Amino acid sequence: MVRFFYVLIALMWASVATAETHEVLMLNKDKQGNRMVFSTEILHVKSGDTVNWIAKSKGHNVEIITSPNNMKFKSKLGKDATLTFTDPGVYYYWCTPHKGVGMIGLVIVDNDLSNLQDITKVKSYGKSKKKLKAFLKELGG
């Protein structure tokens, strides 16, 4: 029994030790001149990884629109946001005030695309609709 406990602790420590932190910037304009964007629009992570969205420009936020676990998350405008992802699947998010101009992104956990179809059911606006269509095509959906 004691041996089992030590193995369990070692496994837990190993999963914590391998978790990564990813940074996504919320920008008015990127280096290529694209306006109202997240610095990484499709981010692949592993279960246990954390994403830090950094508000480099005022007036941006992160709102999870659809996810495999029906997560409800909406950060405050102009504030950094942090989430740790534990459930595999695709998380679709946007900047609430700039969703119509294409400020959207995807976090894909453990390369699991099983809920990709759910994303197609979300009502997209303006440039986001075209951009999301391109993302889905890129992912094979």
What can you tell me about this protein's structure?
There is one protein chain. By secondary structure, this protein is of the alpha+beta class. The chain has one domain: Immunoglobulin-like. It has three helices and nine strands, in the order αβββββββββαα. It has helices at residues 2-18, 116-120, 126-139, and strands at 21-29, 35-38, 42-45, 50-55, 63-66, 73-74, 81-84, 89-94, 104-109. The protein has a five-stranded mixed β-sheet. Strands 2-1-4-7 form a four-stranded mixed β-sheet, with no helix packed on it. Strand 1 and strand 2 (35-38) form a beta hairpin. The protein is globular, with a radius of gyration of 17 Å. The protein starts with a helix and ends with a helix.
Task: Describe this structure in a few short sentences.
By secondary structure, this protein is of the alpha+beta class.
